[in-house]
Amino acid sequence: MRIGITTTVPIEVLYAAGYKVIDLNNAFISSKDYSKYIELAERDGFPKSLCAWIKGIYGACIENGIKEVVGVVEGDCSNTKSLVEVFKSRGIKIYPFSYPTLHTKEEVKRSIDEFLRQFNVTLEEAENVRQKLNKGRYLAREIDKLTLEFKATGFENHLYQVSLSDFNGDVEKFIKILEGKVEDIKKRNPNPKKLRLAYIGVPPMTGDLYDFVENLDAQIIYNEVQREFAFPRFDEVKDIYEQYYNYTYPYSLSFRLKEIKRQIKERKIDGVIHYTQAFCYRAIDDIVIKKELDVPVLNIEGDKLNALDARTKIRIEAFLDMLKDLKED
């Protein structure tokens, strides 16, 4: 059985229920012909002035014949509520999940208990799966550490953490991939760069960002949301309730910023690239982010392209030149 998800959800419950989980975001952006998913959505009536991710999620779901979807209707993209209504009209079974606006342990527990009930899964069954998934989360954390040693690249850091949203649909196989990758990276010689960068915001449409900055003597050594998808604090919590309570992405910006500030300090970050998606309400967060952070912040925006455009490249290059000048002063 396959089930799609619109963003990270308690996949422990879904795997315990016997599903193969497919993160529709990953299915969209990893496709060689990703633009066909956007075109499919626009042919079916989705407006051009709408986030490409929403259209890509829709297209990936329809094109891949996904018949069941978990839609996060609170705590993620506000457009998801309308997206799930379209899915319903196409005969797709929807399981709603909410990250509560009132961010308390009691409310998070209530939401997860309802999710368990929907899939007829016990807490014990979900916890058993969580222990299995934690093996992969440990390996992803190792890759994150190897990035700080300048052995893993920024893109590897991005890819292997973001993929833990669904474990590529096959937990055991993906854990083996991670094991091999960790061993491979450990054997490398460090390749240090002059600038240590943080990337915050939703994972990028433009995956070439990482290679581009590395060619300019900089490296992204902290991927905020991707790292949260990998649940790096998995071994600091006692159960699934605490795990999803401590997960920063779906809650308030002030809650996210606490962890961002901590990582900026610990990783000695020189500058931050804040990525936003065209037509997304999260772009407004940039106002607060620039006010709250003590390091320079560059906001870049993506739309339908999966590669950086010339204007964005020039802006990044100028930003990195400024950071280098600041570092030399």
TrEMBL record:
Gene3D superfamilies: 3.40.50.11890, 3.40.50.11900. The keyword Iron-sulfur applies. It holds the Pfam family HGD-D. Its cofactor is [4Fe-4S] cluster. It comes from the Bacteria. The keyword Cell membrane does not apply. This is Possible subunit of benzoyl-CoA reductase/2-hydroxyglutaryl-CoA dehydratase. The lineage of its organism: Bacteria, Bacillati, Bacillota, Clostridia, Eubacteriales.
